[in-house]
Amino acid sequence: MVIKEIRDRRSVRNYVSGACVSDEQIKVLLEAAMLAPSACNSRPWAFLVVQNREKLDEISKIHPYTQMLATASCAIVVCADLSLQSGVSEGFFPQDCGAATQNVLLQAVELGLGTCWCGIYPKDDKVRAFRSLFGLSGNVVPFCVIAVGVSAEEVGSRGFYEEGKVEWIK
Fold first, then answer.
1. What angle do CA 149, 147, 3 make, to 5 degrees?
2. Closest CA to 66 of 150, 138, 148, 123
3. Angle between helix 23-34 and helix 93-111 axes, rounded to 10 deg
4. Residue 129 neighbours by CB under 8 Å, 6+ apart
5. Could you read off the pLDDT of 60-94 as tens digits, one per residue?
6. Using 50, 70 and 90 to split pLDDT, how confident is the model at 33?
């Protein structure tokens, strides 16, 4: 049941260094991402799978909150291709890429992997730095980077239901 993965999902910041995340596991994560809803089914996402240790280190230099990449097996950079949205769907890439990202995080739990979502967009300096690092065109907006690996820590439950944040309108 998906509620189990939702309850078990945590931001992991310490991974088993050198642990293998297979290409097949990454493909399952990306399939989950691409099954996310998007405005007018525009599917404006594009993904960079970063396994190169030098590139992972470069990401950590330009994004101070990605230090967990030092032990992560890989990273997935979720990007928006603005050329894929027009008309009614135009401008909805943050929601679309956010839904794709959440699907990756939940699928990783089922696969026994840890993840940590670090935002890039809307910080202009980070968007520019990621575009430069990966040679992305101006139509491609780096949205976030997801660290992926085998968790080296036991992480406990953090979220909970808060009745006070709900207003029932019947």
1. 80
2. 148
3. 140
4. 62, 63
5. 999 999 999 999 999 999 999 999 999 999 999 99
6. very high
